[in-house]
Amino acid sequence: MKTNYGIIKLAAVAGRADAAHRSEMVTQLLFGEAIKIIESKNEWLYVESLADGYKCWILRFSYEPLDDEGFVEYINHKSYLTFDPISKIKIKGHEALYVPCSSILPYFDPETNQGRIGKRSYTFEGNIGPLKQKPNAEKILIKASKMLNAPYLWGGKTVMGIDCSGFVQSVFKACGLQLPRDASQQAEMGQTVDFKDAHAADLAFFANAEGKITHVGIMIGHGNIVHASGKVKVCKIDEKGIYDAELNDYSHQLAFVKRVI
Questions:
Q1: Which domains does the chain have, with CATH numbers?
Q2: Concatenated DSSP letters of 123-164
Q3: Which positions are annotated as active-site residues?
Q4: What's the angle, vertex CA 64, arms to CA 60 and CA 69, rounded to 5?
Q5: In angstroms, rounded to a whole number, what is the distance separating the alpha carbons of residues 217 and 165?
Q6: How far apart are CA 136 and CA 172, in angstroms?
Q7: Which tens digits make up the pLDDT trace of 229-239?
Q8: What is the distance between the alpha carbons of residues 256 and 261, in angstroms, rounded to a whole number?
Q9: DSSP per residue over 73-91, as a string?
Q10: What pTM was computed for the model?
Q11: Rounded CA separation 207/253 (Å)
Q12: Mean pLDDT value of segment 123-131
């Protein structure tokens, strides 16, 4: 039977712009994430993430195939995801796998701490949360703080390397809200609020000289923002933009603030 769907079976898979190892990494697909297969080219698959609709090329060995029946079971099963920056999964008959925050736990039973991927069972060690839950500002700020000092990586979505929109997406997903992948897409979500009325967990967006949204961060109150620029860090912010003490200058020009929760 032809398989049109699958589950990512590695900790984090590079999603590339084209079917080539040298091609730009535009995102990462995390363990347990469901994909739809659109096209096949030699060792590469062009896929769509069912979580956020993002499309990219991945290596063929990165996923576990799902037939139609398995896909329906995956969708209907209550899903849980990982909350800690790094969590340990023991797959029966294989070495331990260390997965990043916001990884999905396929067919997981929280009472036994076990699930399965394909025909292999696994045991999970770490903190979890239901995929569908009501996010709140306190949980978002706690999650964001756990990612401090993660190095910047274009297209990255893990504590080992992450970009600005990947950071925001990972934090909010772990707390129950799925946001789009890119900053320009995230900027279309929520309600615009005045900077002076901004709350903790609001999203601040920043534009280049042409007015294009190029950066995003999470407001944390008291004139501060946490964002990924060089690394995940806390900086001062005012109506002009982000003031980076390490640069002794403004690094990003504020466009607007959005409230998404």
A1: 5-129 (2.30.30.40), 137-259 (3.90.1720.10)
A2: EEES-EEESS----HHHHHHHHHTTTTPBB-TT-EETTEE-H
A3: 164, 215, 227
A4: 130
A5: 8
A6: 9
A7: 999 999 999 99
A8: 16
A9: HHHHSPPEEE-SSEEEEEE
A10: 0.94
A11: 6
A12: 89
- Specify the residue for token string 């690094």: 251
Nearest to 137 by CA among 172, 182, 100, 189: 172
pLDDT in tens, 32-84: 999 999 999 999 999 999 999 999 999 999 999 998 888 889 988 888 999 99
Residue type, 15: G
Q: Could you give the strand order of the β-sheet that contains 128-130, starting from the edge strand earlier in sequence?
A: 104-105, 80-82, 128-130
Instruction: List the structure tokens of 3.
Output: 């398989």
Residue 132: how many other CB atoms lie within 10 Å: 11
Place of tokens 């999470």: 218
